[in-house]
Design goal:
Shape: globular
Number of helices: 5
Structural class: alpha/beta
Low-confidence stretches: none
Helix content: 25-40%
Order of helices and strands: EHEEHHHEEH
Number of domains: 1
CATH architecture: Alpha-Beta Complex
Strand content: 5-15%
Number of strands: 5
Distance between the termini: 78 Å
Mean pLDDT: 86
CATH topology: Ribosomal Protein L13p, Chain: A
Strand order of the largest sheet: 1-2-4
Radius of gyration: 21 Å
């Protein structure tokens, strides 16, 4: 007669302590937006929190005139739909960066929604976070490039006037 073995699961009687997620404080000054966004999206999907400051000082590489035209074309699509239902294209630097990061996570699924809740993007450094140690992402630092435009300059070209709604 052959012996059969069954696997039994044993439940631990110990209560598991909640794991506190690591928080990354990132200074976006002179970081390439796309590279920074992909690294931040990776951290968010791992369950870590990310706070980005000075998002207006991050840069897009390429011909500044062409970049303005591309974003303005995108903004001009707005009147074709219902203005109340969207699509909504943002002009504020923090919302531009947030939207780019959102495009790199599965934002329509629960995992992506939870990831985006762990993200904070600020224009400048908020007073509540000044004491924190800010890090930079070496992989996203600006290469020696001739053509670039900052998020602030792009936002102003799209109509951002420095005021918060």
């Amino acid at each position: 007669m052959a012996e059969t073995t069954t696997k039994t699961k044993t439940k631990s009687t110990e209560a598991k302590a909640p794991v506190k997620a690591k928080t990354h404080y990132i200074d976006a000054t002179h970081l390439v937006v796309g590279r920074m966004a992909s690294l931040v999206a990776e951290k968010l999907l791992k369950g870590e929190s990310v706070i980005i400051a000075n998002c207006e000082k991050a840069i897009f590489t390429g011909n500044p005139i062409r970049l303005r035209e591309l974003w303005q074309t995108r903004l001009d699509l707005r009147p074709k739909g219902n203005p109340e239902t969207g699509p909504r294209f943002h002009r504020m630097p923090d919302r531009i960066v947030r939207e780019i990061i959102e495009g790199m996570v599965p934002f329509r699924r629960e995992r992506g929604v939870q990831a985006m809740r762990r993200l904070r993007v600020f224009i400048g450094v908020p007073a509540t976070h000044k004491a924190n140690k800010w890090e930079t992402l070496k992989e996203a630092e600006t290469p020696r490039t001739k053509g670039y435009i900052s998020v602030q300059e792009l936002a102003e070209a799209l109509g951002y006037n420095g005021l918060r709604n």
